[in-house]
Amino acid sequence: MTVVTYRQAITRGIADALAADDDVFLFGEDVARAGGAFKTTDGIWERFGDERVLDTPISEQAIVGTAIGAAIRGLRPLAEVMFADFAAVCFDGIVNELAKYRYMTGGQVTCPVTIHMANGAGTGFAAQHSQPAENWFLNTPGLKIVVPGTAADAYGLMRAAVADDDPVLYFEHKGLFGRREELPDDAPIVPLGVAETVRAGEHCTVVATQLMRHRAVEAAELLEREGISVEVIDPRTLVPFDHDTVRASVERTNRLVVAQEGSAGGSWGGTLITALLQEGFELLDAPPLLVCSEETPVAYAAALEAAWLPSVERIADGIRRTVAY
After folding, report:
1. Integer distance in angstroms from the first to the last C-alpha of the chain?
2. pLDDT tens digit string along 294-307?
């Protein structure tokens, strides 16, 4: 067992994926000698060399296009798009080519591409570099979406993503890079589509990912002193989504709060609540609640950015109101 940062767990996951399969190669802007803009590829070029780790021009369209072509030819590309916001630059390649290639060839050609991207707010990068971009891709069948919130999940989900035969978007949260946690020396691969029950509880189910997962746990610990027992679930992947684990929890607690970074419109949290209302309305003793960000861009000013992100107290207050309904 080793204590590592979330960032180091990503690096280890990438390196072990390269070591496990010679068809895997890593490429992106400054991922080789520089070790990546966020140092998530630090030391990998030194280990695997120029043929397996390649720097690219500053062109997200070229990165995604190369990934698609390489995958069609039988390789397993692991591409880095520096900021998740920059996926907008290569959106056409991701949603109209990568996501649809297997379907449009009748399953004759697969695209085992993993694109990993630095995501999320809270680190002062302003509106164009802080968006929770995972929500952009929810309405694109053919893509799998991974959102690790811990070092163990960052490692295990990276391994699963690279080994998957479908395209996977892997969103790493910038606000968690320095978070330190234990990672077993023989850390397991984490299967896609399996949620984790982070904390057991009786009075309310809270579903949260990444930074909000940790704030939800803090809120649950705060409320425990008030006699409110909160169950916290981290879905870990948004597509495929583990609805069964959430539903089983709500069957016990009869209440649901979703804590989400980002605004409500077109979001994974809103989608989850809609699905539960359609399929499990009779389970609820209170209206489900979405604790989320305002419908505004992410501010650069630190105080405004902090207010945009759901805080521990906002999450706790939402749980209080739901339990008291």
Report:
1. 44
2. 999 999 999 999 99
Q: pLDDT tens across 66-117, in order?
A: 999 999 999 999 999 999 999 999 999 999 999 999 999 999 999 999 999 9
Q: How far apart are CA 229 and CA 222, in angstroms?
A: 10
184 CB-contact burial (10 Å; exposed 0-12 / middle 13-18 / buried 19+): exposed
176 plus 203 within the same structural domain: no
**20 residue type, one letter:** A
pLDDT of residue 160: 98
User: Is there a domain that residue 188 lies in?
Assistant: no
Say which residues have a Cβ less than 8 Å from residue 263's Cβ, sequence separation at least 6.
292, 293, 294, 295, 296
Find the domain containing 205 and state its range: 196-324
- Of 122, 151, 183, the residue that ends a domain is 183
> How far apart are the C-alpha atoms of 77 and 111, rounded to whole Å?
9
> How high is the pLDDT of residue 103?
97
Q: Are strands 196-199 and 76-83 parallel, antiparallel or unpaired?
A: unpaired
Contact in structure between 117 and 129 (CB atoms under 8 Å): no
Q: Where are the alpha helices (DSSP H) in the chain?
A: 6-20, 44-48, 60-72, 91-92, 101-104, 151-163, 210-224, 243-253, 268-280, 302-308, 312-324
Give 243-278 pLDDT, tens digit per residue: 999 999 999 999 999 999 999 999 999 999 999 999
* Structure tokens, 182: 């234990």
> Given a cut of 90, is residue 1 above it in pLDDT?
no
* Predicted confidence (pLDDT) per residue in 32-52, tens digit: 999 999 999 999 999 999 999
297 SS3 class:
coil
d(CA 122, CA 55) in angstroms, rounded, equals 28
CATH of the domain at 57: 3.40.50.970
Q: Which helix (H) or strand (E) holds 107?
A: none
Question: Cα 323 vs. chain centroid, distance in angstroms?
Answer: 28
Number of residues that this document lists for the chain: 325
Catalytic residue set:
60, 129
